[in-house]
Each structure stands twice: as structure tokens, then as C-alpha cells.
Structure prediction request, 623 residues.
Amino acid sequence: MNAQPIIEIQNASKTYTSKNTQVHAVQDVSMSIDRGEFVVITGRSGSGKTTLLNLVAGLATPTSGRILLDGAEVWQLPDREQSRLRNRRLGFVFQFPSLMPSLTSLENVMLPTMFGDPAAREGARDRAVQLLTDVGLSDKLNAYPRQLSGGQQQRVVIARSLMNQPDLLLADEPTSDLDELTEQEIMGIFRDIHQRTGITVLLVTHASELEVFGTRGVRMAGGQIV
Amino acid sequence: MNLLRLTWRNINDSAFRSWVVFLCALMLAAFAVSGTVVVGGAQKSLRLALERLGADVIVVPSGSETGVENALLMGRPVHTWMPASNLEHIAAIEGVDTVSPQLYLATLRGATCCSVPEMFLIAYDPVSDFTLRPWLEEHIEDGLHMGDAVGGSFVYLPAGQELIYVYGYGIDLRGKLEATGTGLDQSMFFTFDTAHEIARLSTTQAEQELIIPPDSISSVLVRITNHSDPRVVADEIARRVPGVTALVSASLFQTQRGNILALSRSVIALLGIVWVLAIALIALVFSIAVNERRRQLGVMRALGATRRTVLVSLLSEGAALALSGGVVGAAVTAFAISLFRNLIMDLMGGPFFFPNPFQLALLILEVLAVTLVTVWIAVLIPALKISLTDPAIAMRE
Prediction:
């Protein structure tokens, strides 16, 4: 395992302001994640874990502090470079249903290639079929999201997150809407992917019992690491 | 998978939004095409009719002004006569450069001796004529002889015949003039000699005699000298030649001009209202649709779509709907106008020039451009707003 940090969070804070109220979602958080780690961040609802994940992903702007991805500060990059970085180096699994309802499973998995280098589209279909097969959905290639169960939809999302062979997989409460059995299956897929590919995984969840699937557990409360 | 395909899928997926934008674009294009074709065509018709007339002043027997205007505009035959000696009196007036007389005739209705019923016929004097001459010199080098005629653009030989029969007299159609969109397109022009020959033979060949009163003419076309004022010359003609009215060409067709002006004002006002309503409705519906798709668009950004890609994707959806609605609206409207042209002319009380296919295609392209810009204006604000939003905020409930 390469010990060089892939992510460095330095005194990051995020405050949401609405009319007369301010919400300090993340307060002065510092941590680093090494390449190849599987970090599980746990905490109750409102603890700031999803916001921290969004800051790492470059999906939300930090109010203060720095987020470094392989030494580069994401929010200092122009939009085009940020998007390129997200497309090529990051894979996302969201808590909510994030598949495009008008696209089939196969098309959803291939979607990230649409926003990247045109050369990467070569062989995209074969790779997408393989990824869907890996997550056990080889018979659902042409199914639309509405024709899939919640667990099946999350499997498609996992397959999509791996389409561009990212360095870092970010998962936000990927099992929150699933029953216990499906939750175990999905977490098993994450562990399998991590062990098989050595990809760095940052997963946030409110379920502390899922910490065991990772190589390191981090707890958050009140916007801070505890 | 490409942006075009994603756009198409999103259009299908947001059926309500898509139909509203499509119908707004359709209505806008339909109003724009109908307004332009009818009002623009009516204005062009009047201009072409005056050009065809080619005179600065037209002198007609008093009381026949409306009939002559209707004949020239709508092709409704008129029978009006004045002494031929008026020609010399008018020619002698200061400021008059050239004069040329015309006879206004018509074919018979329901008579087998005439190929076409109630066609407006104009006989001209080939020696003094200055209205048809430029066209004839260009198209028929030896001019029109006895029994020859040129017709308006809508004059055709009857099926299976080589001549057009007028009072039993066979006329050789030597050519057709360019379209004006007026009644002149359904009229026929021949020389005085031909007119008198038709009248002479009609006593034996026709079901009814063609009567041209001796030493009579229907109108005098006047061209004035340089630097003369047509109104002054017209006033002088009216003062010195009894029983006639001198109409200044620029002031002809006042009723039709008034109708067109009123119509164009209504069309512009209506078009303005439709335009504003279309923008408001499309902006509202698109805002709702974009709001519903905030998460999807946030996910797209997370997967690597740039702000520009999101913006282009939404503008592409708008463009596809604008163009498809615009094409349908413009094409159906143009077809309907061509189909109901006569009804529209009757309702307007005047003619209008229907554009040729090339002009129509150009107009449709212009209307499509306007429709596209309109939809983009409406779509731009919600599209810009969502594309500039942080993906994390876009994805939040």
C-alpha cells in the first residue's frame, strides 16, 4: 500500500447561510487519507459528514481551509479542470436515487464517458457491460431505473462510479434506504472492489456498525472529528 | 451515448414541459409567418400593382375611381368610358410628358364563346404605351400583333386548346407577366387593334356583342416630366378636362392602404403579446422543469459535466423544441394561407402577394431564427442559474 496521502484536509470549514441563520456544517476539520485506504466516516444526522464528503469531492466550496487532492487544491482549479478531475479521478455513489430516469442501466453506467475525453469512449460499452456483470446485473442491461429495486439501482450506481477507473471512490450513505440484507450485499461489493482494485474509498454513513467494512473509522459530531 | 441523445431522452422524459415549449414555439412561428405573409404580401401587391401601372397619374371618368381600383387590384371587370379626345387635352397640359390610353373590357359569364368567364381584359395602344413596353422589349422582341396577347401569371390556356377564346375570337397567349398578387395576374393584355377586331367579329361569332363605344377610351395613363409635381398636374387635369378624375398613383388604393395599416398594427400588437406571453410561459415551465431536475443536473456535474455542458444541454433541449415547433407552425401556416388565400383576400378587401418557394423558405428560416432566440431568452435564466449552482446545493432536496 502506498502511504502517500491522496487527500489532505487542512482546517476546512463550511458554513451555510440562509436569511438570518448560519449553520456551521463543518468546523475546522483536518485529516488526511492515504492512497489505498478504505475510510468509513460515521456520525449522526447533521454531524457534517456529507458536507465533508462534498468538500473533498469539490461539489461544495469550503468557507475556509484547504482541500488538497494529490497536493492540488481543488477549488483553485478552473471549472473545466475541476470537472475533468471529477470525471477522471473520482467515482461517486450517492444516498439518493441518482440514475438518469430516461437512460437504461447500460447507458447510465456509460454516462461519465460522455463528459470526458472522447478517446475514452472507445470500448466503453464493453467495459460497462463487464461492470454491470461484476455487480450481478448482467440481465438488467436494458432496464430503466424504474424497473429496478433500490438495491439494484445502487449496484448500477456503483458500476457507474467505476466506469472511468477512478483513484478515489466517494460514497454518501449508500445503504441508507436499503434493507439489512441488501445493505450487507452492497457493503460487500465495496469491500470486494477495494480489495480487488486497491482503490481508495471514502464512505460516510450513520450506521456505526458498518465501520468494520473499512480499514479505518472516523467519527464526526457537530461538524468536527471526535 | 452523446449529448444529442441525452437531449432527446430528456425531451421525451419531460413530456409536459416539452409540449408547452413546442406549442409556444408553434404559435409564435404561426403568428409570425401569417402576419408577415399577409401584411407584407399585401404591401408588396400594392407596390407591384403600381409598378405594373407604370404611370404617375391615371385619368378615369368621374365616378369610376372605385371600380377601376377594384379592377386593377382584384381583377373585377369594370366598364367605363370617356371621349378619346380627352387624350389630346391631357397631353397639352403643362407637366405632362407622355399619355397612353387603355380600354377596359371583360369576357362574358356563362357563354361558350369565352374560354374564361369575367376575365378583366386591358387593351393598350402599342404606339404610346409605356407600361408593357419594357417587358415586351425584353421578352417578345417583335411585340404583340393582331390576335396576340400577354397574360398575368395566373392566365393559362384551357386544357386541350391552343388559343384562349374571347367572344369567339381565338387569342394566342404569347407570354405571361411576373406575378403581382393582384387581379392583374388574372387579366389579359392585347392591342387596340385586337380589341376592335374582337368587337367587330363578335357580332357574328359571339353569343353577345362586345361593344366598344366609338371614339371612346376607358383611362389615360400619364407620365409627367421631371421636376413636375404629380399632384399639381392631377389638379390641373381635373380642372381643365371636364368629367374626369385624375388619380395620383402614389395616392391610389387608399382604402386598401388603410386596411393594411390597421391590419399591420393589429398584427404587430398581437405578435408582441404572443411573444411576451411565450417567453413568460416557457421561462416558467422551464424553471419548474429545471427545478425538478436539480438533482439530475447536480449528478451530471458530479460525474464531470462542466457548467458549460449543463448550459449547452439545457439550451439544446430548448433549441430542439423551438425548431420542431417552429417548423410545424411555420409550414402548416404557410400551407393554410396558400389554401385559403382567396378567403383571406375577401376578408381583407384587398389582394396579397404570396411569396414564391424560395422567398417562403427564407421567411421560414427567419421565423425559425426568431423562435429559437425567443426560446433561448426564456430558457437562459433558469439554465444559467442551475449551471452556476454548486453541485452539492443542486443535489440537496
About this structure: The two ends of chain B are 28 Å apart (CA to CA). Chain B touches chain A at residues 1-3, 6, 9-10, 12-13, 295-296, 298-309, 390-393, 395 (CB under 8 Å). Residues 15-53 of chain B form the longest helix (39 residues). The mean pLDDT of chain B is 88.
